[in-house]
Amino acid sequence: MNVTEEVQETQVFPLAGSSYRCPAPQYARLRAEAPVVRVRTEGGVDAWLVTAYDEAREALADPRLSRAETVKPDAPRIGGAMTSTPDMIISMDGDEHARLRRLAAGAFTARRIEQMRPGIQRIADELLDPLAASASASSGPVDLVERFTVPMPLTVIGQLLGVPMEVLWLFAAHARDFVTVDDQGEDSDSVNGLAKLTESMVDVVAQKRAHPAEDLLSDLIAARDSGDRLSEQELVTFAFTLIGAGFDTTANQLASSVLALIAHHRDQWNWLAEDRSRIPRAVEELLRHVNLFSTDSAGNPRIAVEDLELGGVRIAKGDAVVIAISAANRDGRVFPDPDRLDLARTPNPHLSFGHGMHLCLGKQLTRMELEIAVDGLVRRFPDLSLAVPESEVPWHLGGINHALETLPVSLRG
Questions:
Q1: What is the pLDDT of residues 357-372, one digit of tens each?
Q2: 201 vs 162: CA distance, rounded Å
Q3: Do 14 and 80 form a contact (C-beta atoms < 8 A)?
Q4: Torsion angle defined by CA atoms of residues 117, 118, 119 and 125, in that order, rounded to the nearest 10 degrees
Q5: How far apart are alpha carbons 110 and 77 in whole angstroms?
Q6: How far is residue 86's CA from residue 91's CA, in Å, rounded to a whole number?
Q7: How far, in Å, CA of 385 to CA of 388, rounded?
Q8: Cβ proximity of 55 and 36 under 8 Å
């Protein structure tokens, strides 16, 4: 039997040791020795763990690896998974997935996103202006999570969908519970968070239906009410999925990227401040190198709907597959010197936005927000530094993403 076909008794997924700075260290050996390997998972079932770039990219694009199978009532419980339901776009395959994706795709074209640039710049400036004023008046610490990295993407997605900020702040609190990994009991934080998200979005949809406007949520309601291309539950779920995906991942990626730069790569922060035209390429490297995923995967396992081969290994129908995107982004066969942060790296075909049918719908929006945010910070606060030892910076635990609770910084260095 091939070593990759044996369950690795010493490996239990999620592998221990993942941080915002790098995936779990065991992945380097797995990529070299067994890029597709059978492992135990904390969910109680075995799964195939994919760690190398080529195999991960192939798996992400393979329609025989189903997301819909993972949310059926009798589906195996796979470790490292986030809660999802059959009516979420991330839980759909094929035509059903394409149907929902088409409804929102027009709002996320490169041209439409570029038209949003002035508005996003204005949002960033309105958040950074008070920080600049406070930096002039005081040298005390500022929580960058509370003051910038969360409200900026939250405001952007709120304006895109047409959801008021008071609702968005409540949504952000419930979303933190919802993205808890492997917390899926009847009275779990994740299930309760999902219920609260649904309840709040039902109210928003009702108000928007009564008072439509020129925004994405009004467009989705029109699609539901005129063409019946969405069920009411799909509409509600799609709306809060877009909000969650539109702010939480961006906020976490931005905060972790800033922390990595000012705490460990000061030379590269200074390099960006010297020439801000370097920022778009730098953002791609931050997306690759700074690890968003606390389980080193996006929390969306798959189940094979027929026999297939991946990386020379036979995967049987019904087998679970987990794709370690963070590990694939450190594959030295694709990224020379993969563990080094190189903000000038090119090409940079990272998989942080996924690949295939579930390629992130808002990838261009995320890129733009990160570019504008990093540009604003290095331009206004070139001496930005941590206000406390890094060991004292608190993190949310148990979620699908590495998420800072706070990021106390000194704006004046």
A1: 999 999 999 999 999 9
A2: 12
A3: yes
A4: 110
A5: 37
A6: 6
A7: 9
A8: yes
Question: What is the signed CA dihedral for 41, 44, 45, 51, rounded to 10 degrees?
Answer: -10
pLDDT of residue 398: 85
Place of tokens 């019946």: 228
Least confident segment among 116-120, 132-136, 282-286 = 132-136
The answer to whether residue 331 scores a pLDDT higher than 50 is yes
Query: How far separated are the first and last CA of the chain, in Å rounded?
Result: 58
Is there a contact between 409 and 402 (Cβ–Cβ < 8 Å)? Answer: no
3-state secondary structure of 372: helix
Please report the beta strands in 142-224, taking only residues with DSSP state E, as ranges in sequence order. Answer: 142-143
Asked if residues 327 and 37 have their Cβ atoms less than 8 Å apart, the reply is no
* Average pLDDT over all residues of the chain: 90
Q: Cα(172)–Cα(29) distance, rounded to whole angstroms?
A: 38
Q: Could you tell me if 247 and 7 are in contact, meaning their C-beta atoms sit under 8 angstroms apart?
A: no
The answer to whether 132 touches 207, Cβ cutoff 8 Å, is: no
Question: Residue 178's Cα: distance from chain center in Å?
Answer: 14
Which two tokens mark 391? Answer: 């060991």
| Residue listed under structure tokens 């900026």 | 152
Peptide bond just before 347 cis, omega within 30 deg: yes
**Average pLDDT value for residue range 225-251:** 83
With residue 57 as reference, give the H or E element that holds it.
helix 53-61
Distance from C-alpha of 41 to C-alpha of 188, rounded to nearest angstrom: 20
Give every CB contact of residue 297 below 8 A, 6+ residues apart in sequence: 14, 80, 322, 323, 324, 325, 326
Residue 70 is classified by DSSP as G
- Identify the residue whose tokens are 């993407």: 153
- What is the extent of the structural domain holding 37? 3-410
- CATH number assigned to the domain comprising residue 171: 1.10.630.10
Domain count, the chain: 1
Amino acid at 193: G
| DSSP-derived secondary structure for 227-240 | I--S-HHHHHHHHH
| pLDDT tens digits, one per residue of 22-66 | 999 999 999 999 999 999 999 889 999 999 999 999 999 999 999
